[in-house]
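Hi R.,

As promised, here are both runs. First protein below:
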Amino acid sequence: MAVTTSLQTPPAATPQPSPVIGDPVGLTVLATIFAILQSIANWAGVPLYNLTTSFIKASVLMFYLRFFVDMTYRMVTYGVLFVVVAYGIVNVAATMVLSCTSKAACDQVFRVYITCAAINVATDAAILLLPFWLLRPMKVAFARKVGIALILMGGGFVFGVSIYRLVIIIIVDSEEDVTYAWGDSVKWR
């Protein structure tokens, strides 16, 4: 008798909260593990992504500086480098400080994300176009200049992805279900 009473379910009047969160695919994750993963992504993933992007851009710009002695070009390159480092620091600090806890807080987070994504597109465009300064004074055939330009424009894909991410972030800002809509932006980080 004692064994059967311990296996009985509680009455229907007191429903038990489920410790599991389900998704449309049918996979389940414990709520505590999900919270830990979300915290790790917020405190490690996003800042590391932003730092990595800034370091890659800075290294490309420093690589460009090795080829040019023209003072104007060097000043423009250092200017772009300053913008890359500054927006990288601001983006990392903002993602660590700001959190989406209310509608007003989420609006503030999205304003920071949209601003940083726009600056990201601008710096990608500058990094993509800076090598053309190198091609202008070269005394080689036009076909060879076009070939060199195509090699140097290999980063054009990254520029396209940056534009796509900016558009997606603007769309996500106007969506009702931010969690679902944010997935399209995260895929292209």
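And here is the second one, sequence first, then its structure tokens:
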Amino acid sequence: MSPASIGIVFLIGIVHVCSGTRLRQEDSPPRIVEHPSDLIVSKGEPATLNCKAEGRPSPTVEWYKDGERVETDRDNSRSQRMLLPSGSLFFLRIVHGRRSKPDEGSYVCVARNYLGEAVSHNASLEVAFREPGRTYMDRVAEARSQRNRAWCAKVAGDGVMSSSTLRSFPRVRLHRTELTTVTQSGTA
């Protein structure tokens, strides 16, 4: 062996010993390919916060709620939260009480392998509450309806829809389309 070859073998040996693992060209750091979405769930119902990560070697996934690590069935067999093989967080049933709201909060998933980590977008989990005769979703629909009426009144006032008029109201998703003509004197 030439002195140059011995030097290269020695350098590779040092890198291998110092890193504790061998870096392969096909290895890659984790990246989140499916981020969790905000959820509104009824108390006692099941729910899933999705998360999918890629990387080589396959990354491990952990979940955090409001900055604290989430305990799953892998940590405690009695936990109501399960870490699915895909990396998603499954709630057997949403727990929510007057004084304790252990499932409500802001969640992120973190994927890790020896090359680094990737953090998902935040996703909020909110628990729908009930008022006598009304649900949370009824209140959301009512608020959207009020915004819609205000928008129609603003357009009817001058008959011109400007970009500032459109920007002043959040987008409203309609499940049923109704055609209404707005005129100077009101609706026709």
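A quick note on the second one: The first strand starts at residue 28 and ends at 34. Let me know what you think.

Best,
J.
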